Every structure is written in structure tokens, then in C-alpha cells.
Amino acid sequence: MNIVVIGTGYVGLVSGACFSEFGFNVTCIDKDVDKITGLKQGKIPIYEPGLDVLVSRNSAAGRLHFTTELRGHVQQADAVFIAVGTPTRRGDGHADLSYVFAAAQEVAAHLDGYTVIVTKSTVPVGTGRKVEAVIRGANDKADFDVASNPEFLREGSAINDFMRPDRIVVGAESPAAISVMKALYRPLYLIEKPVLFTRLETAELIKYAANAFLAVKISYINQMADLCEAVGADVHDVAKGMGLDNRIGAKFLHPGPGYGGSCFPKDTLALVKTAEQYDVSVSIVSDVVAYNDSRKKAMAGRVISACGGSLAGKKLAILGLAFKPETDDMRESPALDIVQELARQGAIIHAYDPAAMDEARALLPDSVIFEKSAQACLAAADAAVLITEWNEFRALTPQNFKDQMKHPVLVDLRNVYDPAVMRGAGISYSSVGRS
Ligand SMILES: NC(=O)c1ccc[n+]([C@@H]2O[C@H](COP(=O)([O-])OP(=O)(O)OC[C@H]3O[C@@H](n4cnc5c(N)ncnc54)[C@H](O)[C@@H]3O)[C@@H](O)[C@H]2O)c1
Fold this sequence. Notes:
The protein is of the alpha/beta class. Helices cover 44% and strands 14% of the residues. The site of nicotinamide-adenine-dinucleotide (NAD) has 27 residues, from helix 1 and helix 4.
């Protein structure tokens, strides 16, 4: 089978590489000439563990190709995946579908023989039908179906998530489209991964419903953490006690500075906008969107209190910038709100992240000093703030802080360290939801 993937971002590149690993012939197409030139030379444009090996193995085997040209590839394709970005549209919070429709329009002109056009991008309900109309409008002779195949991979464990997903969701309605999609996911069906076939609209909504649910779960435990602080309970134990109930589950019950990343913020917002359009209340999700924004902003206040009420002229060591570990993605990272506010309050910011510094440089104030290691960051700092729970920060001992800081103050926004150990070593330690 021949597959074309439009867009070589986190989703397109990982999906393309994984489909080629299944043995299919895959062509990944992107408008970004530099990205494609780099990929042809084996340069991976994103930080994603294991992706370099997968790309080089399948490129060498002649199953994975990179180009900026649709011509000649779309014609041969059994399935064309659209995996372009769907960021929040400026001004109104809806998903910006201009990249999806532009890709559909471009693909339409090259279709030749039966092809399934698959939206892998996260798109609001009704987009699949609109993609169908765009293609029909551009090429009334085209023989095609549109399917929806939302992607659930997580940055940082994207390959494993694609290769061993909890489920595959496919919105496809014609027997021909269902048959192509079954063939594509047969390798996963063979290892007993559930493949759920639905109508187009249902598949589109499943993705938003799932992401919004996880965002609610994170916000719920964040609010419980605040309550724990007020009443003297320990959120770590509360989460454990809740998570041991199989109906609840332990995942996504880790309190922190609020969710970020390229998906939850924009997808929760887009779901709210879809519901508004259809005059349906999803007030739980609307509340979570507002709460999460306020939570990210509130985090700087914790640092100010830990530093005695003023940050003017104080040196802060910021450990971690990416929205989560194992990625260089800074989109909507809580670090953006936190660092900006700390700098505004007069702090001198020294920051270190194992992967996201290049991305962060463009987004953070010019005054931020980027260091080469956690140790360099901590040197002579008045306080350290852990924002992203990279493993290399987990490994820091109380002595590491004491060696570098005269009167160590540590604000642990991810509850990585043991409060008793840190405080026992003389560190002024504060965390989230643990008094
Ligand atoms: N990043 C994630 O973890 C994740 C997970 C699940 C779903 N998603 C969804 O997948 C979609 C893609 O996300 P991403 O993070 O991979 O995006 P991204 O911004 O990293 O990559 C998108 C790529 O598409 C390219 N592109 C845009 N228009 C194009 C066109 N007409 N032709 C060729 N290339 C084009 C861009 O140059 C870019 O390289 C989004 O809808 C997102 O919500 C993302």
C-alpha cells in the first residue's frame, strides 16, 4: 500500500515513520523546505526519543520518503493522511482549519483512482464533511472518501503510543474506506489493539471528548491540591487513595502548574466553541479552561512568597521549560507564564531545560539567561523553581542544592522531591498540595 502524509510535525512524522515500519511505502510531504531538506539528510526536526532510529532505518530500506511535492505521490496513494496543524484561531478560540482545507484543496488536484483522504489532525465535528466538499469542489471527478482517524499519541512517548495504542478510532462510512483503513491498521489489529469504527462526526468528537476529560482530571487534582494545602492534607496520598479505585484510575492525578502543550489548551477551547455553536452547555470544560489559565498565572505567586515577598534583584534558577519532560515543545508551556511574571517582578532568571532551550529562547524575555546545566543554573541562586519534571532533575540531591546555594529555597511545582528529605537537609522547600 502507498501512503502519503501531509505535514511532518509531531503527528505526521511519527505516523509516517511508524506506517513505514509496518512495511507500507510512505511519502511524507511538508511545505517547509528546510524541514524536508533536513529529513532527507537524516536530521529530525523535533526531539522525540527513538524517532531518529525509525526514520533512518525505514529511509534506508526505501520505504520512507520526504518531499515538498504532491505531484506523482498523491496519484499513487491508497490513503492520504492530513496531519497539519490546527492551532487556535486568533481572536475567537475556534480551531484554525485553514491548513487542513488548504491541504485538502492541494491534494484534490492530484487524485487519481480511488483514494481515502484521512484527517489525522484534531478537527472539530463537521470538518470531515467540509473536507469532502472542498475536494469535490476542486475536482468533481475525484474518486475518494473522507475518513477521520484522530491521533492519541503523546509527545515524548509518541512511537510507543502509535505502535501500541490503547485504541484506534476510525470514522469511516463506505465499505471501500473501511477496507483501506482496516488494511492500514491490520498490524495493530493483529496484536489485539481495539479498532473502533464510527461515523465521521463521532470519531471527530471522541478526540475532543477524551482530551477535555483528561484536562478536567488534571484540573480536578490541582484544585484538590489547593484544598489539601488549606486543610493540611497531602495531595500525594489523596491522589493515591483516589487512583486505587479502578473506576477513577491513577493516571492524570498529578498536581502541578496547570496543563500546557500543543493539544489540551487548544482542544478544550475548541470544544467549548463547538458546543457554543450548537447551543449546548459544556460548562465543566469552560470552567476548566478558565481555571487552568488562572492556575498557570498563580504559580509565580508561590515563588514570590517562598522568596519572602519580593523578587527584586533575586537570582532564580528555573529547572525545566518544556510543557512536559521528553519533549522540546514549548507550546502553551506553564513555564511561559511563570517565567514572564517572575522576570516582570524583577527576578534575574537563569534557566535550563535538557531539550527545549532553542524553542524557549524565541518565546521568553531577552533578559533570561540560558545555562548549560542544572548545576550552572543553581550556582549562587536565591531560589530554584522546578517547572518540568525531567529525570535529570529528579536525580538532584539536597546536597546538589546546598553546594550551589547559600540559603537554598526550592519551589517544586511537580512534587518531584520528598518534602521530609529536603526539609530535613535544611532546604526551605515548598511543593504543590503537600504541607
Ligand atoms: N503534537 C501532538 O502531541 C498531537 C497529538 C495528537 C494530535 N495532534 C494533532 O495533530 C495535528 C498536527 O499537530 P502537530 O503537533 O504534528 O503539528 P506541527 O505544527 O508540529 O506540524 C504541522 C506540519 O504541517 C506542515 N504543513 C502545514 N500545511 C501544510 C500543507 N498544506 N502541506 C504540507 N505541509 C503542511 C507544517 O509545515 C508543519 O511542519 C494537530 O491537529 C494536532 O492537534 C497533535
